[in-house]
Amino acid sequence: MTNSPDRVRTRFPGISTRAWEHPADRTALVALRTLPGFDTVLRTLSGLLQERQHRLLFLAAAVRVDERQFRSLHQLREDCVAVLDARTTPEMFVMQTPEVNALTIGMDQPFIVLTTGLIELMDTEELRFTIGHELGHALSGHAVYRTMLMHLLRISASLGWMPVGGWALRAIVAALMEWSRKSELSGDRAGLLCVQDVDASVRVHMKLAGGTWIKEMNHGAFLAQADDYERSGDLRDGVLKLLNLELRSHPFSVLRAAELRRWIQSGDYDRMLAGDYPRRDQDKNTSITEEIKEAARTYRNNFDQSEDPLIRTVRNLGKDVGSAVGTVGQEVGETVSKIGKRFNDWRAGEN
Questions:
Q1: What does the pLDDT look like over 170-207, one tens digit per residue?
Q2: Does the structure show a pLDDT above 90 at 98?
Q3: Which of 133, 222, 251, 276 is the most exposed place for a label (fewest CB within 10 A)?
Q4: Angle at Cα 39 formed by Cα 34 and Cα 42, nearest 5°?
Q5: How far is CA 218 from the centre of its chain?
Q6: At what angle do helices 198-210 and 124-140 cross, to 10 degrees?
């Protein structure tokens, strides 16, 4: 994997958001929109949250980026807008907090928020990747669903998760969390198209995982962790991986870097740099059915190639159904039993 020299970046006139949208992102959105009650929740939140009121919080409590304030960030945003040929430039704010975070929210006019913790952690090219990542979210229309998730999580926290009868909302929140994790993979692709520096894209995830001591980390070793994560352990570890992800809105940093590496190795990134990418003027001719089929093919390929112990067991179901089902039941039962015992021990210690 090689890097482009600094400030020699390919531009993508008329590029469609389909160029960087991960198939899992599009599939999760399709599934999300079919959930009972989803349209009602979306309409209700859209009516309750006036765009101007939503934006006023950051106008009052953060610093708006322009040619006079945070000029370097303004220039990075302008570069990303030019590379992705964006028709509009989303507003951007810097918020004072040690938390390392960046987000894109808003219902009608999405805007980007960067925290000072993130700005202090990243160098210029890493910030270019991050801003490109958030611009990708804005252009793909992700901000609407991220805003929904943010407010539903706030409501659920204030109500002690969800009241009785809130199972439909629970399903929507869970589906939004799953989609949010997938959408981050799309944002990473947009970020790489903007920065066109593979090393910088990996460094972002290394810093998100390990902090500022980048000189003490190694790209190859970091990416090798993802291979070890997928291959190592037994079936119980496969179950625990699912449990670890359940309440996360973002995938783990190591796995995000590995997924970006997988996209590069597929050849799609180089083809786009060479000018072979989907155009906006072709979007109206795109078949949703074909998009779903493409996503299904991607899932199938990943499933067939996965070394995860849980997926390997499921994959072998067709070979020996009785044995595999017995193994799954036994391993999952043991795992749940141990988790329950640890939880009870912890409660006893608290009392």
A1: 677 777 787 888 889 999 999 999 999 999 999 999 99
A2: yes
A3: 276
A4: 125
A5: 23
A6: 90
Q: How do 102-105 and 91-95 pair as beta strands?
A: unpaired
- Is the full-model pTM beyond 0.70? yes
Q: Tell me if 279 sits within 8 A of 14, measured CB to CB.
A: yes
pLDDT, tens digit, for every residue of 279-295?
999 887 765 556 656 65
Entry field: residues in the chain:
351
Which segment of 94-98, 123-127, 166-170, 297-301 scores lowest on mean pLDDT? 297-301
The answer to whether 148 and 100 have CB atoms below 8 angstroms apart is: no
35 secondary structure, DSSP code: S
The residue among 132, 81, 83, 140 whose CA lies nearest residue 110 is 140
Report the distance separating Cα 111 and Cα 131, nearest Å.
11
Helices (H), the chain: 23-33, 38-48, 51-61, 71-83, 116-121, 124-140, 142-158, 167-195, 198-210, 219-231, 235-245, 253-265, 268-273, 288-305, 309-315, 321-350
Q: Are 247 and 181 in contact (CB under 8 A)?
A: no
